[in-house]
């Protein structure tokens, strides 16, 4: 753990002491080396799966894929931001990368935390750099509103979580995940306990987001600059899923009944947000709503609490993280050229940018869960486990899959096919950097087809 | 009634609110005395030195540096080396070396061992004629149940 955390903290001296010419080169290389070292976590060292470096920081098969995803994403964020941050003064560029690195540090500590309070503190701490990135470097005036929605939705959900965690500490004497998984099941009968149950989960459901408390997401994703959108879509949403999976261990047997409304909301959300995607004119907004749709499936998979559900949730979180981030990078390439997120302004791109059309194609195929990509494997496991939980869910999940395919096709046809408007001819060619960025997003997704057991969690 | 309407309709359809009111109900900036209708180019003066959001002029960076890789606008040396290092650390080191490391990791979670062990045990038990698996995992005589009828 420390072999990754210390180099991540040492990113701060790298950022502030590099010469302005080599700032981006140095930080890219440094963060890629951190990403390489983070792959060492994937080795399953003990029978239980927990690999604890000390009492407070440990990894297990649930947190390891998410940690590797986080470490992989930092160099991608740096690569993606390099162009649009370039005209700013050098100290502001350093500040931007510092915010990304501090987000990285908090996320590593959040996913590696063994103590629930430390997880909570890091969960909250990630809000601050993200808020600064959205409100300072966003491009439209709506970014202030977006920052407010983002901050207050998450805070409103997480303050009950703090109270719930303190109550749990009071009753069990510990909040260490290593110990709580073996604790006696709690007697949970009264109404107070039911509210406690809700308090434990609301924060993560808002973060995922669950349909109904999802309004912060389209705003935050759209108004954030590309690195902000990438980290939000790829990792911050998964904090919610990860938190839920950790908490579910302790929440039985109340979850059997109390999870019903949330499962239904999640499933309904898949269809509703998928339908909203079909009517979007804003490119980033479409990708943001598709994130809500996929996360609804993840939330449903976690709430039914079966091994297949958990495994499917982890696989879908990793695969969706990479693919959603790839789509946001592609949207940013269109935005940097046309300075608009409106889809009809960036049509017929295949004629002008044929290689990029390949990336659009693969990213959209991954988004609609084409076999043998891990997106499909995760979705299929969740759909199967939900069918086992109740056969009626197949209507909702099946329709959701159909609509997902519909809007992915819509996105591809809208951006790539069709006659290219005349202003497209004058757009600047694609940079090597942008192609590298897309390769580094999509190649891990393709490689995960060959070794999916890295993502199966501890259930199998 | 409908025949009257069908005679009146072509005239009614052409009446615009603006022709009745005498002005268009569209908010417009007041016309400057310099020109007639405002065009897009008047709203944003474009001079050769105009800086767009990327800080470079309207000229594409490929004009100055045909081998622009997207990393550094001003210095082509830094741009090229940034590209080389990003590709090296990103692809050659992280994906290739990292991927090889992951490929050669030992049996993840002992899953393949579990499958082989199960096949071995099945073969062994079939050879000895033993049942493949006993129905009770725990010895039933050791389980103490509360008597039914109590809470």
TrEMBL record, chain A:
One Gene Ontology term, aspect cellular component: mitochondrial membrane
Keywords from the named record: Electron transport, Membrane, Mitochondrion, NAD, Respiratory chain, Translocase, Transmembrane, Transmembrane helix, Transport, Ubiquinone
Membrane topology: Multi-pass membrane protein
Catalytic activity: a ubiquinone + NADH + 5 H(+)(in) = a ubiquinol + NAD(+) + 4 H(+)(out)
Occurrences of domain NADH:ubiquinone oxidoreductase chain 4 N-terminal (ranges): 1-110
Transmembrane region(s): 21-42, 62-81, 93-111, 117-137, 149-168, 195-217, 224-243, 258-279, 286-304, 310-331, 352-370, 390-413, 434-450
Family, similarity comment: Belongs to the complex I subunit 4 family.
Full protein name: NADH-ubiquinone oxidoreductase chain 4
Source organism (scientific name): Myxocyprinus asiaticus (Chinese sucker)
